[in-house]
Amino acid sequence: MAIVRVSGPDAARIGRTLFRCPGQPCLESHRVLYGHVVDPHDRSRVDEALLLYMQGPRSFTGEDVVEFHCHGGLVCVQQVLELVLAEGASRAEPGGFSLRAFLNGRLDLTRAEAIADLVAARSRRAARMALDGVDGGLQQRIEALRQELLDQLAELEARLDFEDDLPSLDGQQVLAALARVDQGLEQLQQDARRGLLLRQGLKVAIVGLPNVGKSSLLNRLSRQERAIVTDLPGTTRDLLESELVIGGVPITLVDTAGIRETDDPVERIGIDRSRMALARADVIVQLFDLTRGWQEGDEQLWRSCPQGVPLLRVGNKLDLRPDLDTAAGPGRQDQPGMTTDPQPQHGVRDADLLISTQRDEDLSRLEQLLLNRCGAACGEGVAASLNSRQLELARQARQALARVHDTAADALPWDFWTIDLREAVRALGEITGAEISEAVLDRIFSRFCIGK
């Protein structure tokens, strides 16, 4: 099934012109009619369909809306669309309906952006977080902070004009109120880091010397045979990617070519691409073979990995080393990161985790370690959080509040306080859309899909 939606003052007229149903019942709001879409010029039937009319303001956009529920398929939908356009409608731009809902006061900007997040969600947790935003969870938090700032701004501005008629204002109380707002913004920033992980996911690069089990690990984590596994070194010649969800976080696994010195020109290209993938990864998992121990090549690869990217050193083939295989498995699973430069002979002892790709329990431990190391292991109840645009505006608001404290420390008059306080109010208003420019709106809604 496909839907052709029309919003605006001519929606009802277009519905009456193009739709015919038995008995010619009247077009009644929020009532579904059965009939046919017809060409008004020759009365020929174009498609069997349902018609839904929603009279404004009781619609998503706040305007009159008509929906033609047609059969799926390109031909029928295209014909219906052409008839609608011939009646004077124009094609919707990306986000056109959500933009109308915002301009008509049906949605604030945080709810509109949450709709886009809901459509683009890559996991159930991301969808639940976006749905909380659609329900107004984020808007309520931001608006409460903005109203607190507006209250303090009103008190300050009143003193500028009527200081002799009003009781004196305690600057410390104003600063305490601003500090509470700053704490609320700080909490929103912390929530946003987890939210961005749920929206954007993590790119995890699996690296190691040839034949240490990289492809086996990718296949087992993704629950499908994406990579060819053999005992021959150099089997993987190019990057292989697999999409999966771990703990509600979208993960892109990248199986890289085994990094080694080689004269094979094709394999060298794959190795070069592997090194580029490392630079773009959010976390790197370096596998090494427990049956061979930590080799000099493992050490060189470890030291060549990009700085600043979380790196996990994982020993594989634990099932072939019964001397190391204990109930919990050796390794420093609870440590936040390596604190010393490891020596080659200490590789097994200093590994973050020892696993066998053949055992589900080992894979579960690795998945949990990945989430912990990236700060993504949060609970199921994740509230709506700031996106990248909103996070930058929250940062601007906090900077403005910090400048108010500097102004107070310099014992400057009230009118100097109001300058930065207005800037903080403006930044929060731009998050919800209370203060927004047309150019910013165009940039936001251009990212939406057509139909929303």
Short recap of the structure:
The longest helix is centred in the middle third of the chain and has 30 residues.
Question: Which helices and strands, and how do they pair?
Answer:
Layout lengths: L1 E6 L3 H8 E2 L10 E8 L6 E10 L10 E6 L3 H13 L9 H8 L5 H12 L3 H11 L2 H26 L8 H30 L1 E7 L5 H9 L17 E7 L2 E7 L9 H16 L2 E7 L6 H9 L6 E6 L36 E2 L5 H14 L14 H22 L4 H19 L5 H8 L7
Parallel strand pairs: 6-8, 6-9, 9-10, 10-11
Antiparallel strand pairs: 1-5, 2-3, 3-4, 4-5, 7-8
Helix pairs in contact: 4-5, 6-7, 6-13, 7-12, 12-13
What's the β-strand tally?
A: 11
Summed up, the helix count is: 14
- Average residue pLDDT: 81
Multimerization status: single chain
Major sheet description: 6 strands, mixed
**Structural class of the helix and strand makeup?**
alpha/beta
Strand content: 15-25%
Helix content: 40-55%
Side-by-side strand order of the widest sheet: 7-8-6-9-10-11
Termini, distance in Å?
17 Å
Tell me, briefly, the overall form. flat
Sequence stretches where pLDDT stays below 50 over 5 or more residues: 225-238, 327-346
- CA radius of gyration is 30 Å
Element-level helix/strand string: EHEEEEHHHHHHEHEEHEHEEHHHH
